Amino acid sequence: MNQNEAKRKITIYDTTLRDGAQGEGIHFSTQDKLSYVKRIEEMGSLYVEAGWPGANPRDDNFFQLIKEQEVPMTHIAAFGSTCKVNEAPENSEILLKLVASGAKTITIFGKAWDLHVRDVLRTSLEENLRLIRESVSFLVKQGHDVFFDAEHFFDGFKENPDYALKCIEMALQAGASIAILCDTNGGSLPKDIALGVEMVRREFAPQELGIHVHNDSGLAVANSLVAVEAGVTQVQGTWNGYGERCGNANLSTLVPLLQVKGNYDVLSDSALHKITPFSRFAAELSNAPFDERQPYVGRSAFAHKAGMHVDAILKNHRTFEHMDPGEVGNERRILISDQAGKANIFERLRRFDPDIVKEDPLVEKAMLEIKDMENNGFQFEAAEGSLDLLLVRTLNRFTSPFEVLDYHVWSDPLRGELDSVAVVKVKVGEQTVQIAAEGNGPVNALDSALRQALASFFPILAESELVDYKVRVLDGSRGTEAIVRVIIDTRLGHEVWGTIGVSNNILKASAQALLDAINWTIWKFDEGARRARV
User: Fold this and answer.
1) Are 8 and 264 in contact (CB under 8 A)?
2) Which domains does the chain show, CATH number per domain?
3) Phi, psi torsion values for 364, nearest 5 degrees
4) E-assigned strands of 243-375?
5) Are strands 105-111 and 145-151 parallel, antiparallel or unpaired?
6) CA 349: distance to chain centroid?
7) What is residue 425's three-state secondary structure?
8) 276 and 494 Cβ atoms separated by less than 8 Å
9) Cα 14 from Cα 234, distance rounded (Å)
10) Exposure of 142 by Cβ count < 10 A (0-12 exposed, 13-18 middle, 19+ buried)?
11) What residues are paired with 491 via a beta bridge?
12) Rounded distance, CA 445 to CA 422, Å?
């Protein structure tokens, strides 16, 4: 696109709360949906398809409660279907509940593939056209802005193009403000999408046209982009690509792709900067693991590991980055591993000593120590807390705020759920504390005992929590004597970091990772403990 041309506006229609909730393992409560809508206000003017009134009590409750909320920037849409076969729209429970929802925008889907008309609705092609025409007309006469989802449009267009186009014609003639072309099975190729969009534009010249694609062929983002290039003005999708089967078009990728690469007008620059935190918020709200390898918003999206790459990017970020990560609220990460060179270590050390130079012997010292440790089983890519502790120790800027004098852990399967007990003895300054704690397993017991022993000295520990625990056997051929790697993830607020331990004793490896987690929490976040830094 010519940079001097005016940017074409692309509207985002967010189906995370409805389509996204159909994804395996994804669930939103009524309160989740309200929180979602409140948060997405920060993103600017978007359509949010919030649910199907009448489908379940949760959605009914949401549409009642949202009437009381102030969400001026967000267009709440209710979703449903056409009336049923041989049913008049004014008698349709589906349509009446859509009207009663109070949503100004109503999106209904209708069949655009003759196979579905015959084999699913089991009615005539003419009756299906009536369902579309009369359902849209009824909702328009009730004062609603009606969007029509042409379900399975691209499959229908392949097998019976005249009928698929007739379905679009019926909806537009009945007053639908926009028709959305759907690749519901997610099996279409980009050329199929382009052809279908071009044909609809040629036949009807609609001012507004939408695209809704699924990711069953891994092409949802590409197909959405092709549709925009072919002339659609509205893109439907879900944050993080949530949705049934393989998911829907991923807005976390599509929005920056369209705005930064395609030079379309999608969101404000300030909203674009919030893409990364919003994608993480959506994952947290849905209780789904966040894919750190997502383009644009994942932690790995701008992570650099190879020493030569890091050296180049520090000289000119364009050498190995296609855009500034800050544009989407993300950040560059320099990974440290046995692949690292001095440039990696130097860049990381500058976080703690901005005045250090690349030729400083401490850079070489840290690099050699890291390579030696990784050769013995450590892996710092997923353990940045332990890595940073190593670096501040190298810089002589870390003084341990406590000392573990002794600890014992034992388990008894007959004890019930809390089957383990840990006793720890720690020293803080001149004070010695000994604490016993129960836990669900030895690691949980040890974690509880350490936190209880130290919490009165370092209150910040009460705000952090262990959120993940992973064990990997490094040499399975040695059986129970094998060396194991333990990685623990700790969270404080929205920040998560990993720490690591390696030993042929799983409890010792776990204790090492736990102690690093506690030390890093205190060093970084406890104001009082900062006085102990050298």
Assistant:
1) yes
2) 11-286 (3.20.20.70), 303-375 (no CATH), 403-533 (3.30.160.270)
3) -65, -40
4) 303-304, 333-334
5) parallel
6) 30
7) strand
8) no
9) 10
10) middle
11) 465, 496
12) 5
The residue whose two tokens read 């949010």 is 48
Identify the pLDDT of residue 533: 44
With a CB cutoff of 8 Å and minimum separation 6, the contacts of 450 are: 404, 407, 422, 424, 426, 514, 515, 518
**Distance separating alpha carbons of residues 179 and 168, to the nearest angstrom:** 7
The pLDDT assigned to 226 comes to: 97
How far is residue 276's CA from residue 239's CA, in Å, rounded to a whole number? 10
Label the pairing between strands 234-237 and 431-439.
unpaired
Calculate helix-pair angle for 342-349, 361-375, nearest 10 degrees: 110
Q: Token pair 């209708």 is at which residue?
A: 110
Contact 424, 404 (CB under 8 A): yes
Q: How far apart are the first and last CA of the chain?
A: 56
Q: What amino acid occupies position 289? A: P
**Length, in residues, of the chain:** 534
Residue closest to 384 by CA, chosen among 283, 186, 286, 524: 524
328: Cβ contacts below 8 Å, ≥ 6 apart: 256, 260, 272, 273, 275, 276, 296, 297
Q: Cβ(76)–Cβ(67) under 8 Å? A: no
Please check whether residue 389 is in contact with residue 398, taking contact to mean a CB–CB distance below 8 angstroms.
yes
- Which amino acid makes up residue 486? V
DSSP 8-state code for residue 506: H
Which residue positions in the chain have pLDDT lower than 50?
A: 1, 531-534
C-alpha distance from residue 521 to each of 217, 386, 407, 485 (Å): 43, 11, 21, 21
Distance CA 454, CA 26 (A): 37
Q: What is the pLDDT of residue 346?
A: 85
Element (H, E) at 200: helix 190-204
Farthest CA pair distance, the chain: 88
Nearest residue to 23 (alpha-carbon basis) of 181, 198, 216: 216
Between CA 325 and CA 304 the distance in angstroms is 13
3-state helix, strand, coil in the chain (%, to 5): 45, 20, 35
And the tokens for 89? 């729209």
**Element at 346 (helix H, strand E):** helix 342-349
Amino acid at 498: G
* Structure letter (DSSP) for residue 474: S
Could you write out the three-class secondary structure of 202-237? HHHCCCCEEEEEECCCCCHHHHHHHHHHHCCCEEEE
3-state secondary structure of 140: helix
CA distance 409 to 435: 12
Rounded to whole angstroms, how far apart are CA atoms 478 and 246?
Answer: 40
The enclosing H or E element of 298 equals none
Name the 3-class secondary structure at 437.
strand
Q: List the structure tokens of 226.
A: 């092709």
Tell me the torsion sign for CA atoms 226, 210, 78, 45: positive
